[in-house]
Structure formats: C-alpha cells, structure tokens
Amino acid sequence: MAKRKIEEEFENENVQRYLKEFSSRLTVLRTSKNVSAREMSVSLDKNYGYINSIENGKSFPSLKEFFSICDYLGVEPREFLSSFSNSDKDKLTDLHARLALLTDSQVDAIHSIVSDLTNGNPVM
Questions:
Q1: What pTM did the predictor assign?
Q2: How far apart are alpha carbons 5 and 8 in whole angstroms?
Q3: How far is residue 119's CA from residue 107's CA, in Å, rounded to a whole number?
Q4: Contacts of 44 (CB under 8 A, 6+ apart)
Q5: How far apart are CA 21 and CA 43, in angstroms?
Q6: Measured between alpha carbons, how far is 56 from 24 in angstroms, rounded to an integer?
Q7: DSSP strand E in 1-124: where?
Q8: What is the phi/psi pair of residue 59, to 5°?
C-alpha cells in the first residue's frame, strides 16, 4: 500500500511539473509572437481569458485545443513539447528553435557568449 502511495505522489508531482512547463512554454511562444493572451484567445474563438487561464495554470486545453494553439503559434506539437525533455539532443533542438526567433544581432551576441564560455576553442 505504501508503495502505491509513493507512486501516486510521484505521478502527481510529474503532472504538476508538466502543467507548469506547458504553461510556461505557451507564454514563451506567445510572447515571442508579440501577441497578447486576450488577442490569442479571441483568435482561437475562445473567451478573452482562455489563454490567460492556461498560462496561470487554472485550466488545461484538450488535445484538439492544443493542436489549435500549436497551429496558431506556427509550431508543431512536437516542437511545443520539446522543452519538456532533459536530453541534450532535445535541449539543442529547443535552443535551435529559439535562436530562429532572434534577430541577427541577438544571434551574434549569443554566439559571442558561447565562444567566450568555450574559451574561443574551435568546434571540431
């Protein structure tokens, strides 16, 4: 019985973590498009507080609504969820997607930072 209780607590912690990550990811993608939560909600034919309630963790979209959100943001569902994994490959994929949202000067600044962090060592 105690083992099941521990498993339930672990599952609940994971669910809560994923809900927070989902909300945060939605906020990042929406703000990168310079769209207000209200504007996005209305564009998705939802009430004006719909996206805000998801970003605040008060509600969670259905799978169909999730696909509509991804379509609106111009991202594949896989790309939306890519930040949920901790693998290095997924982190690099996520970083690449985020870099694509930056201006040339921002990319140059990031490149300089990474170069400094690696002590200017050339990539092999």
A1: 0.60
A2: 5
A3: 18
A4: 50, 51, 65, 68, 69, 72
A5: 23
A6: 9
A7: none
A8: -145, 170
Radius of gyration of the chain (CA): 18
Tokens of 68: 């509509």
Tens-digit pLDDT profile for residues 71-110: 999 999 988 987 665 556 667 777 888 888 889 999 999 9
Site of tokens 């290095």: 88
Q: At which residue do the structure tokens 């490149």 appear? A: 111
Ordered DSSP codes for 19-37: HHHHHHHHHHHHHHTT--H
Task: Scan for tokens 């993608």, then name that residue.
Answer: 29
List all residues 6 or more positions away from 38 whose beta carbon is below 8 Å from its beta carbon. Answer: 48, 49, 51, 52
